[in-house]
UniProtKB/TrEMBL annotation:
<dbReference type="GO" id="GO:0005829">
    <property type="term" value="C:cytosol"/>
</dbReference>
<dbReference type="InterPro" id="IPR016009">
    <property type="entry name" value="tRNA_MeTrfase_TRMD/TRM10"/>
</dbReference>
<keyword id="KW-0963">Cytoplasm</keyword>
<keyword id="KW-0808">Transferase</keyword>
<keyword id="KW-0819">tRNA processing</keyword>
<comment type="function">
    <text>Specifically methylates guanosine-37 in various tRNAs.</text>
</comment>
<comment type="similarity">
    <text>Belongs to the RNA methyltransferase TrmD family.</text>
</comment>
<dbReference type="InterPro" id="IPR002649">
    <property type="entry name" value="tRNA_m1G_MeTrfase_TrmD"/>
</dbReference>
<protein>
    <recommendedName>
        <fullName>tRNA (guanine-N(1)-)-methyltransferase</fullName>
        <ecNumber>2.1.1.228</ecNumber>
    </recommendedName>
</protein>
<keyword id="KW-0949">S-adenosyl-L-methionine</keyword>
<dbReference type="InterPro" id="IPR029028">
    <property type="entry name" value="Alpha/beta_knot_MTases"/>
</dbReference>
<dbReference type="InterPro" id="IPR029026">
    <property type="entry name" value="tRNA_m1G_MTases_N"/>
</dbReference>
<dbReference type="GO" id="GO:0052906">
    <property type="term" value="F:tRNA (guanine(37)-N1)-methyltransferase activity"/>
</dbReference>
<feature type="binding site">
    <location>
        <position position="112"/>
    </location>
    <ligand>
        <name>S-adenosyl-L-methionine</name>
    </ligand>
</feature>
<dbReference type="InterPro" id="IPR023148">
    <property type="entry name" value="tRNA_m1G_MeTrfase_C_sf"/>
</dbReference>
<keyword id="KW-0489">Methyltransferase</keyword>
<dbReference type="Pfam" id="PF01746">
    <property type="entry name" value="tRNA_m1G_MT"/>
</dbReference>
Length: 245
């Protein structure tokens, strides 16, 4: 998987992309990351990337010419790459969307700044607009980092165990079950007995029920789209969750 990021602040990515899972993915040759300074695609001596909006209003807009030139140039590195724009107006970023993106041959992520980008870039160059939440950031760089991290985890071989990605929260539409490690007792709190039993079927049953319980308590909205078995529905009804079909 190749990620190409178009940004006015490429140095913001140096620390996050040089550590942990993303670093591991690069070292294994499973992902490539290209950082591209949008100002390098301007043609005036001031390297202008923004201008006032037609019709007036506060703030500045990113000009279409350097953005178009940047996208067209980077497309030469990976013609089949999908172009993403990080924007509060985009499709909410979810685990399901991350899975979809992980199957693409490459992603070009355009990081917006100022009051946004010229609408013609949306219309002619962007394949998907993505939002990481209902709030406003100073720019799209942090959102791009979130996208790269989330998608990278889903690329086979990046994590120590591919099972980790499958059992994470949202991997099966539910929040993850509680996790414990040594010691068996801490501050008067004991590890639940099923986890110490050595009975794999009992452990699996306990984990599934705890995932269902936690999701019902914290994110009941997820249950409407989760793949639930008859046993799952029966357990949820025992918790008083009646609106499961």
């Amino acid at each position: 998987m190749r990620f190409d990021i178009l940004t006015l602040f490429p140095d913001m990515f140096r620390g996050p992309f040089d550590e942990s899972i993303i670093r591991r993915g690069q070292d294994k040759g499973l992902i490539q990351i290209g950082l591209h300074q949008i100002r390098d695609y301007t043609v005036d001596r001031h390297r202008t990337v923004d201008d006032t909006p037609y019709g007036g209003g506060a703030g500045m807009l990113m000009k279409p010419e350097p953005l178009a030139a940047a996208i067209e140039s980077v497309k030469q590195l990976n013609a089949d790459a999908t172009v993403l724009l990080t924007t509060p107006q985009g499709r909410p970023f979810t685990h399901t969307l991350a899975q979809e993106l992980s199957l693409k041959p490459g992603l070009i992520i355009l990081c917006g700044r100022y009051e946004g980008v010229d609408e013609r870039i949306h219309q002619h160059y962007v394949d998907h607009e993505i939002s990481i939440g209902d709030y406003v950031l100073s720019g799209g760089e942090l959102a791009a980092m979130v996208l790269v991290d989330s998608v990278t985890r889903l690329i086979p071989g990046v994590l120590g165990s591919d099972e980790s990605a499958l059992t994470d929260s949202f991997g099966d539409g539910l929040l993850e079950y509680p996790q414990y490690t040594r010691p068996p007792e801490f501050n008067g709190l004991a590890v639940p007995a099923p986890l110490l039993s050595g009975n794999h079927a009992e452990i699996a049953k306990w984990r599934r029920e705890q995932a269902l319980r936690r999701t019902a308590e914290r994110r009941p909205d997820l249950l409407a789209h989760a793949a639930l078995s008859a046993a799952d529905r029966l357990f949820l009804r025992s918790l008083g969750v009646l609106n499961v079909s």
